[in-house]
Amino acid sequence: MILADESFILADESLILADESLILVNESFILADESLILADESLILVNESFILADESLILADESLILVNESLILADESFILVNESFILANEPLKLLPLPPAPTMSLPSFLARRSFHYGWIVAGLTFLALLVAAGIRSAPGVFIVPLEQEFGWSRATISLAISINLVLYGLIGPFAATVMERIGIRRMMVFSLAVIALGVGLTTLMSASWQLVLLWGVVVGSGSGVIALVLGAIVVNRWFLEKRGLVLGILTASTATGQLVFLPMLASIADRFGWRTAALALTGAAVLIIPAIAAFMRDRPADVGLRPFGDNSETVELSQPRANSITSTLNALWVGMRNRDFWLLFGSFFICGASTNGLIGTHLIPACIDHGIPEVKAAGLLAIMGLFDFFGTTMSGWLSDRWNNRYLLFWYYGLRGLSLIFLPFSFNFSFYGLSIFAVFYGLDWIATVPPTVRLVANVFGKENVGVMFGWIVAGHQLGAATAAFGAGVLRTWTGSYLQAFILSGILCLIAAVCVLQIGQSPTKGNSELSSVTLNS
């Protein structure tokens, strides 16, 4: 038998290479120049650099032998000639080359010194951005809903208030559920719920349907895609640059306003509010596949340590035995802690002065003063732009400065800007632009220092659930302001009282935050012996 390329001749069960460099006779190899003899499973090289005897290797760190540009495995199982495998005991039987090893995305990024935590942070930012855009939509929808259905501003504000309450109250429980079923699954589920709720609002015809869909369904879904999600991701995936990353994730709220509000206002003005709602639904649906494909729960899931962790061991991914009981236990521990109430109360005021008042009622207030809706939405977009820089800088500062002093300045400056707001309407759109820049710089800048203080008081391992309860206070404040400002507007025909009262509350919060961590109480001493995530 002769091969087509004439490289082998098979005769009497012997294999002879055409160039006579290798002869196989009686299952033994003999080189023509007698430099290599292989017989009875023993291999001897003349230069004694490689010896195989009794299936043991001596003085060798290679498993392959190169003979005239052909490879022979030391265990005699294969011969590689002309890029094809031939079994040594079955001449001329061609075998395919082994497949190239596959490389996972985390491994690919790791080889290029890029930590997968940045991918997780980017996906989290994207989800928070879309959720923020959806939460900012009520400011655009209030007036169109009034005009189409004749509902009062107080009625519409009630649905928004329920949305904000659920957004806050679900956060702590979402943190514990994430420990059980994972961040990725919770994010996919919540985005699907949000998309469903927003999409169905286009079919509503009664005010109770607005309360059910926007208040309950969308509020419940958005409770998972909340500030607590960013806190959990940062504390799991980052040991270094936590403040900076948290600042960027928090700034997603501002970016959501910047991206969505002008677009929503323009769509609602040209095509109606239903088309704007469908655009929000599409945005939520579009990011679900990316979250499902690339989001990971912990660094250990991809064989990594948190960014900046140079320890030698990788923490195993083991979900904690969290439950509703442990979430309520965390609240019980917090309620006996003085610092918890200072954090809870200050964040209550934070929510009242941002999402509840400005986020919900600034556009209607502008319309009351003759400013078109699209231009008013542009004001919130300006706030979002400056808040992105302000909150990111706040995260950077929270790694370096005393966080109590940062909060003092944030709340104090916000209070002054809110007191100025009612009078800025008298200076036309340019006066409001000054307010937008000044107020926007610290809209959500309070979040990074607050998270750091929560970690200092309750421990890094308890940040998720404890910050979840603090965020609940934030959203209760937002709900109170959203509904209260709507009622005041209905009764008095003006937002003046709401703006002034909110500014005064911010000044009170500025004083209160200076007391955080200054006077240990009985609750503080118990924290070291209580495991919140049991």
Describe the protein's architecture and organization.
- With 534 residues, this protein is α+β, with helices and mostly antiparallel strands.
- The chain has two domains: 8-95, no CATH class; 106-527, Growth Hormone, Chain: A.
- The chain is built from 20 helices and 13 strands.
- The chain has helices spanning 105-111, 117-135, 138-149, 153-181, 183-200, 207-222, 227-237, 242-250, 252-271, 273-294, 324-335, 338-356, 358-368, 373-398, 403-424, 428-440, 447-458, 463-492, 496-512, 522-527; strands at 8-11, 14-17, 22-25, 28-31, 36-39, 42-45, 51-53, 56-58, 64-67, 70-73, 78-81, 84-87, 90-95.
- The chain has an eight-stranded antiparallel β-sheet, with no helix packed on it. It has a five-stranded antiparallel β-sheet with strand order 9-10-11-12-13, with no helix packed on it.
- A hairpin with a 2-residue loop joins strand 7 and strand 8 (56-58).
- Helix 8 (242-250) crosses helix 17 (447-458), helix 15 (403-424) runs antiparallel to helix 16 and helix 15 packs antiparallel against helix 17 (447-458).
- The longest helix has 30 residues, at 463-492.
- The protein is globular.
- The protein starts with 7 loop residues before the first strand and ends in a 7-residue tail after the last helix.
- The model is unreliable at 1-14, 16-20, 23-28, 30-71, 73-95 and 521-534 (pLDDT under 50).
- This is Major facilitator transporter.
- The chain crosses the membrane at residues 113-134, 154-175, 187-206, 212-232, 244-265, 271-295, 340-364, 376-397, 418-441, 466-488, 495-517.
